């Protein structure tokens, strides 16, 4: 893995927070890693699909072929889950 293509974890967190804030119409700084999409942020399935699409688009520009697999979606329950998933899969 070459370091110039690595996306840092804190940058991924910023991207996730910014996209989620846009979708849910809340301030990014109110979103923390430990929050549940459904229980804490009141994100419905449509909001989560929008988040996945925006992450695939933005991260995919820097990590060719990056996708969030449909079968993995049910495992992404918190902001931390999403950040970890993107970090691990975008830096393969």
Structure overview:
There is one protein chain. The protein has 92 residues and is an all-alpha fold. Helix content is 52%, strand content 0%. The chain contains 4 helices and no strands. It has helices spanning 9-24, 45-60, 70-73, 79-90.
Brief digest:
The chain is mainly alpha-helical. The protein is built from 4 helices and no strands.
Give the overall shape: globular
Radius of gyration over all CA atoms, rounded: 12 Å
Low-pLDDT residue intervals, each spanning 5 or more residues: none
Number of helices: 4
Q: Please bin the fraction of helical residues.
A: 40-55%
Distance between the termini: 7 Å
Query: What structural class is derived from the secondary structure elements?
Result: mainly alpha
Which band does the percent of strand residues land in?
Answer: under 5%
Please tag this protein with its features:
mainly alpha; 52% helix; globular; 92 residues; single chain; 4 helices
Question: What are the SSEs and their pairings?
Answer:
Layout: H1 9-24, H2 45-60, H3 70-73, H4 79-90
Helix pairs in contact: 1-2, 1-4
């Amino acid at each position: 893995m070459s370091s110039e293509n690595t996306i840092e974890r804190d940058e991924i967190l910023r991207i996730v927070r910014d996209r989620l804030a846009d979708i849910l119409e809340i301030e990014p700084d109110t979103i923390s890693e430990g929050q549940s999409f459904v229980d804490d942020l009141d994100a419905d399935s449509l909001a989560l699909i929008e988040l996945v699409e925006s992450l695939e688009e933005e991260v995919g520009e820097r990590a060719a072929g990056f996708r969030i697999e449909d079968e993995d979606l049910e495992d992404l329950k918190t902001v931390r889950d999403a950040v970890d998933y993107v970090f691990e899969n975008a830096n393969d």
